[in-house]
Amino acid sequence: MKGLIGKKVGMTQVFDESGNIVPVTLIEAGPCYVTIIRHPKRDHYKAVQLGFGEAKPKHLSGGQLGHLKKNDLPPLRYLREFRVKSVEDLKEGDQLKVDVFQVGDFVDVTGISKGKGFAGGIKRHRFHRGPKTHGQSDRERAPGSAGAGSTPGRVFKGKKMPGHMGTARVTSQNIRVELIDPERNLLGVRGSVPGARGSVVMIKEVRKQ
Length: 209
Prior knowledge:
This protein has 209 residues and is mostly beta strands.
């Protein structure tokens, strides 16, 4: 299985074999523990739940502590499930580290994007502004008409309008692994990944090549 939970450290740059600068995001990935394995006969789907980030026991609920004590695992702050095709090569209690990936692998990184607060249509949905001519004075960045009149006489659900922007689950796909440091549990991936520094991300094997 190729999957880890990690924390976004920040961005830096490395040089490739040709001497070109490559921007990379550093992620503190793992060590993660296999907390439970979902079997098709019992749970009707295949998945592996990983735990990451040791915490004080007082910061976890009794149910979380009992769940982890079944396999003699330390208190773990973050639990995430990864859908997998096969679970035969894993058992509960196993530890996964950053060396499950190799330089040159392609991964998908999922995280929670930065919150932008309330935003208008132009910033949130990339709408075009209105014309500045023909007597228009204060409608340049307004969204315009939101719906028809008597028919249907309402605004459809899902209409793109101003509102809260960010703080959404976002996945960056097909990102190349550029750096692996097993001693410091660091994984460097090309380009940017969603989330602020210190936010939790999921690194998974690529789904679309």
